[in-house]
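Chain and conformation:
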Amino acid sequence: MLRINSHPVTGRSGINRREWLQAGGISALGLSWADLLLAQQARSSTGDQRRPVGFGRAKSCVVVFQFGGPSQQDLWDLKPDAPTEVRGEFRPIDTNVEGIQIGELLPQLAQQADKFVLARSVTHRDFEHGSAAYTALTGKPHPLPGTNTPARQEDFPTYGAVMARKRPTSLPLPSAVVLGPVMHQGNRPPLAGQNAGFLGAAYDPFRIAGDPNSKDFQVVGLQAPEDLSTVRLDQRAKLLHQLEQRWREFDRSGTAVGMSQLKQRAFNLLGSADSQRAFDLSREKAQVREQYGRHRFGQTMLLSRRLVEAGTPLVTVNWSKLNADQWDTHSKNYSRLRELLPPFDQGMAAFISDLEQRGLLETTLVVCLGEFGRTPKMNKDAGRDHWPDCYSVLMAGGGLKQGVVFGASDRQAAFPDRDPIGPWDIAATCYHLLGIDPRAHLHDREQRPYRIADGRVVRDLIA
């Protein structure tokens, strides 16, 4: 057996002589051996029979990021028999799945438990918001753990950027959208892991920072100036294309290609009525808007559903105020959660239920996570501090199991007791379900290869 880039290749793989001879040029095309094998498998008439379980089941993905780190003991993994300083004020309630309980401030999600899986044994070792958020949003450990040091040109790309590179949509919509502001830790620079990193700005997600619940909510960049007709817009696009063709002849850095892709995306958005309708919440019935909740998170989740319905491959929802990591409950943990959890419960439950009723949950992967959890014991300020050693992640749809708990924590929700997994394993599983081989590679502008995910596909999460 021959191994190339750690992937076994045998005669049964179906690679023909011509494809073997093309191996020397693979890197120049920005591809890896995993990409070649995957493409060959897709062309095979029997490819579906050999495809791994769950591969490509999801067409879209929505990542809900609770910046700051919600406490697993108060939301997903309550310990009613633990000492008072651990179990806290909240009590567990039954869900609609026998044997599964979650926190009392999540009653609506409790009635959707038959549609999601709770992973209660997620773990890593990074206690810092900045670098741990990078890990959560990319699936890669930060190169300088314990810091908040972005390096724009060297960061690993966020989930949406990988989708834009590997599985771009052919529709006049962005391949990746971020709903929410650029996240900062206090007055520090923006968190790493929020953009396309070494892939370049052409693959940056399309960001909508405004509040969808606001009466004057608008998506900047969707409307052309009133005096710019469709004919004039087409003429400008053609002229720009001609100029960029000449620019590419002299450009060797790839900048011209990246800028061309950015401009093409802008023209697609300006010229498409379908894309503009996807962002228009006024088209929703009042009853549906009320179901999600007339607050920022609820209407953001409703906008996420509209984008999934329109065909956007990846949506990231940032629960964060500008310069504020809201789930960072170092003090007054319980009073803050009493404010945060009701809108979260309403918006998240409505989103999962709505996807299921519309027949979209089966093909939409939903991942709800923070960068870490909180300490088992309360501190002197009635808060919980950073705790990456064990926390919980909610996942639903897209080929995952439903109505189950994966893994377990110990008696204080402090360390995994069974089946520990890391953010890199979640990343590998998500890419697998989205039809992207996690063993494949991305290449930076110097054609250096980077494996998409270093973790393992968690088969026990997949239906």
About this structure: The two ends are 31 Å apart (CA to CA). The chain has three domains: 2-50, 60-218+283-440+454-461, 220-278. The longest strand covers residues 60-66. Residues 2-50 form one domain.
